[in-house]
């Protein structure tokens, strides 16, 4: 699976959009981009995934660049409960999730 | 659905004792995963089952660790004998498919194991 690179930490004001970047410059054509988050002391939580097209669900939006070398997870209106570690993972037909170190997002009042 | 259920939530034991962690996956899911999380190593996949059959146990640290899935609704992870370095949070996850477009994994709340 392709390696992903994320900033170690980010801050966001409550109510504003949180834009979390992920670089996956070596991603192959059949690899999906998955996003998970882990709130302190809880199990990781699936957020969203995509292959080529932008995706949106009730939690977030995923924007994937046309060359698929990077993506951005958008939390449109961040709340204090969105404070968590966010993981961007490239996965093909395999099953192993390499969580890496992720981005620690702090949402402030 | 209640989600993935793990028990116990916390376990404190002494070195050398046997520890058994339990997991009930989401009904209808056919893939089950055991992970371990520590500060030093982050989240690591220990073993993966598909349709109750172990597919990849390359992440199991050593022979002291064993995992079983006797049926589609139950799995155990056993450590015998336990050692202080086994102290970690152990997560169980299940998914409808492993990987690809439907490969999202759903995690349980974890079991926090402390070996004294």
How are the elements arranged and paired?
The complex is a heterodimer of chains A (109) and B (116).
Chain A lengths: L8 E5 L4 E6 L8 E7 L6 E6 L4 E2 L4 E4 L5 E6 L8 E8 L11 E6 L1
Parallel strand pairs in A: 1-9
Antiparallel strand pairs in A: 2-7, 3-4, 3-8, 5-6, 6-7, 8-9
Chain B lengths: L4 E3 L2 E4 L5 E6 L6 E8 L3 E9 L2 E4 L8 E7 L2 E6 L8 E8 L10 E2 L3 E5 L1
Parallel strand pairs in B: 2-11
Antiparallel strand pairs in B: 1-3, 3-8, 4-5, 4-9, 5-6, 7-8, 9-10, 9-11
Description:
The complex is a heterodimer of chains A (109) and B (116). Helix content of chain A is 0%, strand content 46%. Chain A is mainly beta. Chain A has a five-stranded mixed beta sheet, with no helix packed on it. In chain A, strands 2-7-6-5 form a four-stranded antiparallel beta sheet, with no helix packed on it. In chain A, 36% of the residues are buried. Chain B is mainly beta and 116 residues long. In chain B, 0% of the residues lie in helices and 53% in strands. The model of chain B has no long low-confidence stretch (mean pLDDT 92). The A-B interface holds A 32, 34, 42-46, 49, 51, 91-97, 99-101 and B 4, 31, 33, 42-43, 45, 48, 55-56, 91, 93, 95, 98-101, 103-110.
